[in-house]
Design brief:
Blueprint (H helix, E strand, L loop, with lengths): L9 E3 L8 E5 L7 H4 L9 E5 L16 H11 L8 E6 L1 H15 L7 E5 L18 H12 L4 H4 L2 H19 L13 E6 L6 H5 L9 E6 L5 H4 L1 H23 L1
Parallel strand pairs: 2-3, 2-4, 4-5, 5-6, 6-7
Antiparallel strand pairs: 1-3
Helix pairs in contact: 2-3, 4-6
Length: 257
């Protein structure tokens, strides 16, 4: 990539001018492409998948390894519309990023999402067991994460070149996660939907604790499956997202009346 070419943080789906924009933040090591697959079936919103550096179309760019640096970059690179409703969705690591970006937008005096949807991640203020997975070698890192959460196809582990490529982005995200320290702030005033898999390592109590981080309405929903329940059964997840998008659009209409 030429140094004069700005990074492309957002990869958009089919334009739907009348619908709220849905910004999707990927799981650890994930790429925007996974969430663009929803574009055809998610009619209530206009999907915009966030592409972090070091993966997908941005493979050659330097990765980001701290939450503060990532938020600074996102505030510059992701600029939701100022006068239209938009919704944030994050899965796993992406939930933490979406939550922290929402707080950063508030601190900067910029518009916040009309709805925040988080998935498969414990409430960030809860105590966490210390881990140092980001210090592992490439293959050991992928194997450890696969054992914890699944989601890494066998064909990835079978190819040394792909292992090296996949581990680079995954290690960066795990370094952010494992060095993250929650900073207490006033609760958000953003409606929150919390999603999770019934067979995931993330417990129902850890999901329910998200209620403490907003003073707006909170909905917690559980779906059959493990950490990547949304891959196995996307239809009910898309219905939940459609509900959040429709609610955001309705609040905007009511505010204009």
């Amino acid at each position: 990539m030429s140094t004069s070419t700005p990074p492309r943080w957002i990869i958009g789906g089919a334009p739907r001018p009348a619908a709220p924009k849905l910004y999707c933040f990927p799981h650890g090591g994930g790429s925007a492409a996974e969430y663009l697959r929803w574009a055809r079936d998610l009619r209530a919103g206009e999907p915009h998948a966030v592409q972090l550096p070091g993966r997908g179309s941005r493979t050659r760019e330097p990765v980001i390894t701290s939450m503060d640096a990532l938020l600074d970059a996102l505030l510059e690179g992701v600029r939701p519309p100022a006068r239209e409703p938009f919704v944030f969705f994050g899965h796993s690591f992406g939930s933490l990023v979406a939550f922290e970006l929402t707080r950063a937008l508030r601190a900067a005096g910029r518009p916040q999402p009309a709805h925040l949807v988080v998935s498969g991640f414990p409430a960030p203020h809860l105590p966490r067991a210390a881990s140092r997975l980001h210090l592992l070698g490439d293959r050991a890192l992928l194997e450890a994460v696969s054992e914890l959460h699944g989601g890494i196809p066998p064909e990835v582990l079978a190819d040394d070149d792909i292992v090296t490529l996949a581990a680079r982005a995954l290690r960066a995200d795990y370094q952010i996660l494992e060095t993250y320290a929650h900073r207490p702030e006033a609760p958000l005033s953003v409606p929150l939907t919390v999603l999770g898999g019934t067979e995931d390592r993330v417990t129902a109590e850890q999901l329910d604790a998200w209620r403490e981080l907003t003073d707006a309405e909170v909905t917690v929903r559980h779906f059959p499956g493990g950490h990547f329940y949304l891959r196995d059964r996307p239809a009910p997840v898309l219905r939940a997202l459609s509900g959040a998008l429709a609610a955001a659009a309705a609040r905007e209409r009511n505010a204009r009346c």
